Amino acid sequence: MRALVSPSILSADFNNLGTDIEMINKSVADYIHFDVMDGVFVPNISFGIPVIKHVKKIAQKPLDVHLMIVEPDKFIEPFVEAGASIITVHYEVCRHLHRTIQLIKSFGAKASVCLNPHTPVAVLEDIIGDLDMVLLMSVNPGFGGQQFIENTYKKVAQLRAMIDKTNADCIIEVDGGVNYETGKKLLDVGANVLVAGSFVFSADNPSEIISGLKSL
């Protein structure tokens, strides 16, 4: 399976967001990644439903929405209505995770669960068959531009083994510190989707970086 790429607009130029979305539209990217932060679960606040709704009007790629928020169940329907194709919730905040996953699917979106760097992949053993995607954080969530956590390679390999053993129809996404070097290693141990923010948008030619990630 060739690498899937999901550029994170957290690192985009918000003075020219439409231009950056058009760049992604014309690129070989597979998704557009949104990090929604509430300042409670993570120590930062980003953007929410209005931004996603406006981006959806011009986006030609599926919207990959990562909810770094407490009580995500309250907002799943509005985010799907705004245009989210994939909804990712955090294991660490979902008291009734199976119910939350079923709620996401009931609104027609793909369901994904994110694990923070300290959370072992074993916690997903009893729900992996219900998931469309698992997002592994390779940095601590809340800010862009952080250094990649090396233990992520081991977690990806463990998760890949779990998916293969159970024949789950589930892909693995990784977010944080992704570049050509880390991206290649992640794909080699079983990842499918690479999220990249600052690596893409700080480049002179972001579309070329997306193509490079896609061809790893």
Give a description of the structure.
The protein has 8 helices and 8 strands; from the N terminus they run βαβαβαβαββαβαβαα. It has 216 residues and is α/β, with parallel strands linked by helices. It has a single domain, classed as TIM Barrel (Alpha-Beta Barrel). The longest helix is centred in the C-terminal third of the chain and has 15 residues, at 152-166. Strands 1-8-7-6-5-4-3-2 form an 8-stranded parallel sheet. It has helices at residues 17-26, 49-58, 76-82, 97-106, 152-166, 180-188, 198-201, 206-214; strands spanning 4-7, 32-37, 63-68, 84-90, 110-115, 133-137, 171-175, 193-196.
Structural class: alpha/beta
How many strands in all? 8
Which outline best applies? globular
Strand content: 15-25%
In the CATH hierarchy, the architecture is Alpha-Beta Barrel
Structural Rg: 16 Å
Biggest sheet strand line-up: 1-8-7-6-5-4-3-2
Q: Please give the largest β-sheet.
A: 8 strands, parallel
Q: What percentage of residues falls in helices of 4 or more residues?
A: 25-40%
Number of helices: 8
What do we call the CATH homologous superfamily? Answer: Aldolase class I
Count of all domains: 1
CATH fold topology = TIM Barrel
Distance between the termini: 11 Å
Which whole number gives the mean pLDDT?
Answer: 96
Sketch the topology as an H/E string, one letter per element.
Answer: EHEHEHEHEEHEHEHH
Low-confidence stretches: none
CATH class descriptor name: Alpha Beta
Layout of secondary structure:
Blueprint: E1 4-7, H1 17-26, E2 32-37, H2 49-58, E3 63-68, H3 76-82, E4 84-90, H4 97-106, E5 110-115, E6 133-137, H5 152-166, E7 171-175, H6 180-188, E8 193-196, H7 198-201, H8 206-214
Parallel strand pairs: 1-8, 2-3, 3-4, 4-5, 5-6, 6-7, 7-8
Helix pairs in contact: 2-3
